[in-house]
Structures are given as structure tokens and as C-alpha cells.
């Protein structure tokens, strides 16, 4: 259309003469270029359309037919052509990913989901896993399964099925933690007692020796030795608490009261670091079944880590929220955050990022929370802007219903 208008304009402005021939040549060249580009685009679109037809034909003509073996209403399905472009997605897949259909269809699978890079239909992995951040900024763990679509034994597309395995991952991680504690309990309980016995003997004889019995130059070392023995006793005490924790004395308690008591105990550390503590608690009493002293110890360890990780003059938030089946406490600091490669290790015994830490505080806190049928985990959404520790306890209604069951 543009070329025709340009030709009419030239014929009106430049009457037929030798002077108008250069303009006509330019116009004809422009017309040929436009036709070439248009034909090239049409060729690409026809090829793309043919890929889509081949994929759909292969989907329908499978032997045995995949259509009969896939539940399109409950499984998340994405259809990919031979070039790796998404040509169809069902409502379940868009709901799972939190994306609109228009943002998936027409996109390469590698760009849309970040998987199956360098797409080659003949060498795709049958299964795989990847992480996905949904519309709520929550990290999900997804597993995918690929099925080749053959048209007369020629690869013509791929059927991709997505599965949400987030809960499976959490259960697996919880099982690993339980297994770790079981090994520690079996191997280390006796060892801790064996260390404590000679340590008690050493401490007793050190206390029997009066300062006058020491050479004057050695006298300052007596108190130093006793202090170090006391430090060892504290570490052993914490370790024994992990290997043989006392059963919690369960009764109804207010989480707000426990949080307030924790903030009072942590006051000296707050003052030294100049950290502001922000409490975001419910306006009404939120109660759970638990042991006040044990929960106080668990919260104290978590809050101590948050304040230590915060910069001088930083801020720590304690947020208490109610959900249908559980009560959640969030402890959020604005420190440097925990690197992703260390995030799964922070609950391991004796692992600490502080030079003076024993690495047992969070381990004991986790043991206490597990004994209260709760969960302790580190949020995956804050890698470099602080750390968010999540503590979930069953609500009173959930706890009583589990007991009755």
C-alpha cells in the first residue's frame, strides 16, 4: 500500500521525463526490498505454522495415544513444538506457574521457564527439577517430565508435564534433619558423658589447689584454666540437651507474653549493638500449646543471631501472624543475609558463621520447636537483604484435633 501511494505521488510531482527516472528506480528498489522482507516473514510464519501442525498431529496420532493417558484437567501440561517454542498450555499449568497463557504461548521454553536450554528434541532429559518463584514471591520446587511426540517416527514436538514437589522437598529435608539428629544421639551421647567425667575431676582438683600452693608466676593461670573448664561444661551441657532433650511441659500459653519476655532478656545485647526491635503482634491474644521456658530459650537463640547479624544501629522485626492451620513467627533482620550455599547448613550442629559461636543455638532451637510439633526454616526469598527466620506452630484448633485423632 505504501509503495502504491509513493508511486502515485511521484507521478504527480514528476511528470514523465528523463528527470523522473532516478526516482522511479529508487521506488522500484524500495518495492523489491519490501516484497523480499514480506516474503521472508511469510516463509518463517508458514514454517512456524507447519511446526505447530506437525506437533498437534503427532499428539493426536501417538500409538498408544497420549491424549488418553494424560489428565488435562489436573496435570499441568505444556505443548512444545520441534523448535522449542510453546504452542499450548492448559489452565492447570498457568495456575501453577502464576502466569497468563499469553505470556507462555509463543515463547521458547528456555526463556519462559529457564529449562531445556539448547533445545534438541532428540536428546531431552526425561525428568528434571527446577525452582520457580510464583506471583507471591514464594520459591517453589517443580519437577518436569518430557514425552516425545512422534509423527511417523519423526520427532515433531514434546509434551511437558509439571509437578509441584515443594511439600515433598520439605518432607525430605525434615527427614534428613531427623536422620542427622538420630546419628548424633546414637554416637555422641555416650561420648559427651565420657568427656564430662574427667573434666569434673580436673575441675575439682584445680579448685582444691589454693593460690598459695602455686608458684607466684603461675597463679594467674589457675583462674584462666577454671574459666576454660566452665566454657567446656557449657558446651557439653548444650550438646547433651541436643542428644537427650527434656520433654516439654505442655500447657496453653500466650506467644505475645513469651516474645515480650525474650525481648527483655536480650536487652543488654540490643543496647550494645544499638539495634531497634520492632514488634508487630496481633491486637488480641494468640495462644498455642507449649512450654514457656523451652520456647523462651529457642526464641532467645534466634533473636540473638538476628541482632548479632544486624549492623550497628540496625533493625530487627518480630512479626506474629495467624493462619488457618498454624501460627507463624517471623524474625527479620537487615544484616548481610545468608549465602545460598550456606542456607541449608545453618541448622546443622556446630556450624556457625561467627568465630566465637558454638553452632548449637539454632540446632537446640530447632529441636525445641520440633518437640512442639512446629517447623523452623530460613526463608529463601531474602538472599542479600537480611535473613528471615520462619517459625510455625500448630494453632490450638489444629493441635487439639490432632490429639483427638
How many domains make up the coordinates? 4
Percent helix range = 40-55%
| Overall form | elongated
Number of strand segments: 12
Number of helices: 12
> Unreliable runs, pLDDT <50, ≥5 residues?
none
Order of helices and strands: HHEEHHEEEHHEHHEEHEEHHEEH
Q: What does the oligomeric state look like here?
A: single chain
Mean pLDDT: 77
CATH class of the largest domain: Alpha Beta
CATH architecture of the largest domain: 2-Layer Sandwich
- Major β-sheet annotation: 5 strands, antiparallel
CATH superfamily of the largest domain: Histidine kinase-like ATPase, C-terminal domain
Strand order of the largest sheet: 2-1-5-4-3
| CATH fold description of the largest domain | Heat Shock Protein 90
> What is the rounded distance between the termini?
77 Å
Share of β-strand residues: 15-25%
Gyration radius (Cα, Å) is 34 Å
Structural class: alpha+beta
Question: What's the layout of helices and strands?
Answer:
Blueprint: H1 2-13, H2 21-60, E1 76-80, E2 86-89, H3 91-97, H4 109-113, E3 127-133, E4 139-151, E5 154-164, H5 166-208, H6 219-243, E6 251-254, H7 255-265, H8 267-273, E7 276-280, E8 287-290, H9 292-309, E9 315-322, E10 326-333, H10 340-343, H11 361-371, E11 375-378, E12 388-394, H12 396-404
Parallel strand pairs: 7-9
Antiparallel strand pairs: 1-2, 1-5, 3-4, 4-5, 6-8, 9-10, 10-12, 11-12
Helix pairs in contact: 1-2, 5-6, 7-9, 9-11
Amino acid at each position: 500500500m505504501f509503495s502504491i501511494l509513493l508511486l502515485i505521488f511521484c507521478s504527480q510531482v514528476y511528470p514523465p521525463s528523463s528527470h523522473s527516472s532516478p526516482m522511479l528506480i529508487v521506488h522500484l528498489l524500495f518495492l523489491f526490498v519490501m516484497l523480499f522482507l514480506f516474503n521472508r516473514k511469510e516463509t518463517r510464519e508458514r514454517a512456524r505454522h507447519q511446526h505447530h501442525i506437525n506437533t498437534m498431529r503427532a499428539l493426536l496420532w501417538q500409538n498408544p495415544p497420549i491424549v488418553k493417558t494424560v489428565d488435562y484437567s489436573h496435570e499441568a501440561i505444556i505443548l512444545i513444538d520441534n523448535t522449542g517454542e510453546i504452542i499450548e498450555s492448559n489452565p492447570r499449568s498457568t495456575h501453577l506457574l502464576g502466569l497468563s497463557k499469553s505470556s507462555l504461548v509463543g515463547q521458547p521454553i528456555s526463556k519462559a521457564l529457564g529449562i531445556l536450554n539448547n533445545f534438541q528434541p532428540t536428546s531431552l532429559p526425561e525428568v528434571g527439577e527446577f525452582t520457580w518463584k510464583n506471583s507471591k514471591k514464594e520459591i517453589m520446587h517443580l519437577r518436569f517430565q518430557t514425552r516425545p511426540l512422534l509423527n511417523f517416527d519423526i520427532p515433531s514436538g514434546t509434551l511437558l508435564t509439571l509437578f509441584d514437589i515443594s511439600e515433598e522437598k520439605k518432607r525430605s529435608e525434615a527427614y534428613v534433619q531427623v536422620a542427622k539428629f538420630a546419628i548424633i544421639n546414637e554416637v555422641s551421647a555416650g561420648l559427651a558423658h565420657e568427656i564430662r567425667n574427667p573434666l569434673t575431676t580436673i575441675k575439682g582438683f584445680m579448685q582444691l589447689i589454693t593460690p598459695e600452693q602455686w608458684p607466684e608466676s603461675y597463679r594467674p593461670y589457675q583462674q584462666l584454666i577454671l574459666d576454660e573448664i566452665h566454657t567446656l561444661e557449657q558446651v557439653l551441657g548444650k550438646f547433651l540437651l541436643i542428644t537427650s532433650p527434656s520433654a516439654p511441659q505442655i500447657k496453653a500459653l500466650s506467644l505475645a507474653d513469651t516474645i515480650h519476655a525474650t525481648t527483655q532478656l536480650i536487652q543488654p545485647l540490643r543496647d550494645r549493638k544499638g539495634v531497634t526491635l520492632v514488634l508487630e503482634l496481633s491486637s488480641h491474644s494468640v495462644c498455642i500449646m507449649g512450654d514457656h521456658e523451652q520456647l523462651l530459650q529457642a526464641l532467645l537463640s534466634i533473636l540473638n543471631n538476628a541482632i548479632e547479624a544486624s549492623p550497628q544501629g540496625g533493625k530487627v522485626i518480630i512479626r506474629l501472624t495467624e493462619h488457618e492451620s498454624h501460627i507463624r513467627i517471623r524474625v527479620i533482620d537487615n544484616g548481610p543475609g545468608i549465602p545460598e550455599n550456606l542456607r541449608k547448613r545453618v541448622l546443622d550442629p556446630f556450624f556457625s558463621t561467627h568465630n566465637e559461636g558454638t553452632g548449637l543455638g539454632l540446632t537446640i532451637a530447632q529441636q525445641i520447636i520440633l518437640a512442639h510439633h512446629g517447623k523452623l526454616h530460613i526463608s529463601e526469598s531474602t538472599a542479600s537483604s537480611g535473613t528471615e527466620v520462619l517459625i510455625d506452630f500448630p494453632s490450638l484448633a489444629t493441635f487439639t484435633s490432632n490429639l483427638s485423632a
